Amino acid sequence: MTPTGPDRHDDDVVRLLRAADPLRNWTLPPMLRTPEDARRATRWRLPRLRPNVHRPRGPVRSRRPQALAGGSIIVAVLLWLGGGAVIMPNARPGDPGPSGLTSPTAAGPSASARPGIRLVAYTPAELPREDIDEDAAGMLRQLMSDITGPEAPPGRKVTYVRLQEWGLNLTDPHPPKLLVAQDRQVWWNAERYAYTRTTTLPGQKPDRVRADYTGKLPAGFTFTGYHDIPDGSSDSGITVLIPDPSEDPRNLAGQLAASHPGGTPRQLIRAVGALYRQHHLGNAERAAVLDVLAAAGLRYWGKVTDRKGRPGIAVGTESTVKGMGPDHKPVTYTVRDMLVIDTSSGNLLAYEETALAPLGPVDDETGSAPGKVIHYVLYLENEKVSRIPGLR
């Protein structure tokens, strides 16, 4: 497969500079966030540089694992604790997306956060949901038996996914009072050819439930795009954490645990969110996902409507989370991870993270609140198609 033409936003100078980048084939280790991350990082080794072999002419490929891995936006969550700023980056490949809240240490209902934590943010409103809090196993197993939907035509070998994602970006000391989300479209096939198109959306107003731009994007929006083109080496092409999700729940549970180690309900939820960033799942695979979630001890929080207006049910967990403060001392707080699942197809509609603490912007313009949404992902489109744009 070769590109049919240059990407409309990559001019000749940019393509030449990227082709000459000596680090283009390097896989970067994750940012250090906790002492456990630091210990794990000692196992990373930088690959040796290979000579610049012949490449097809056309759009520049990106060799960094960011198209499907969920680490393409490096976002910081800035907490205010006793007058000190706490910056907690999260760029682990394969996470559902950036939130900055990592390393769950315990899971349980409504674990208490340390008083005085304040979040600098202009955030969406929480999704309204029913006043229900019960074990989710029964509801999830009922959904397993009710899954319906046509299977993908056998001749369509290309996976296409589209999502909208927003997360706190507070590296700027004066963050804008609008929510700036990204629309990401990815086409990829089993040979690891891929095309990724990312559109930074116009600012959306905070304190709203519904998200803008969830339908067809208006003409004229500026996007960036690149191709991943394998060259025969083991680390070329697009990176997929779980290349072939199993239809067997026990095997799938092992695949999800390997992609997001930790063994906690929160890590499982994040692994499922990452899986849906990468795959179009058939009926049997969706049923296996629900089976794995049903065995995880999640909570059922009733019916909910996602930020696109689609009905579903909410399941999730609340976890006590530890991070490192500016003085290298641990900071403890609470986060809620929630999945919104379609009751007819079993598909994942949305993934959300909410910090459960007295939160509010530093300048007190909006005051404090018992919780703030810090990250959401809307899974907008998910299907099998016949071709990758720009490749033949």
Summarize the structure.
The chain is an alpha+beta fold and 392 residues long. It contains six helices and 14 strands. Strand 1 and strand 2 form a beta hairpin.
Description:
- Residues 91-112 are annotated as: Disordered.
- The structure is a single chain.
- The protein has one domain (12-385).
- 16% of the residues lie in helices and 27% in strands.
- It has helices at 12-19, 35-41, 137-146, 249-259, 265-278, 283-294, and strands spanning 75-81, 84-90, 104-107, 118-119, 134-135, 158-167, 182-188, 194-200, 223-228, 299-305, 311-324, 330-341, 348-355, 372-385.
- It is globular.
- Mean pLDDT is 73; it is low at 5-10, 22-35, 37-94, 97-118 and 358-369.
- Number of helix segments? 6
As a whole number of angstroms, the C-alpha radius of gyration is 21 Å
Low-confidence stretches: 5-10, 22-35, 37-94, 97-118, 358-369
Largest sheet geometry: 11 strands, antiparallel
Task: Classify the helix fraction into a percent range.
Answer: 10-25%
Structural class: alpha+beta
Number of domains: 1
Q: What is the general shape?
A: globular
Termini distance?
5 Å
N-to-C series of helices and strands? HHEEEEEHEEEEHHHEEEEE
Let me know the number of strands.
Answer: 14
Region (Disordered): 91-112
Keywords: Membrane, Transmembrane, Transmembrane helix
Biased composition (Low complexity): 102-112
Protein name: CU044_5270 family protein
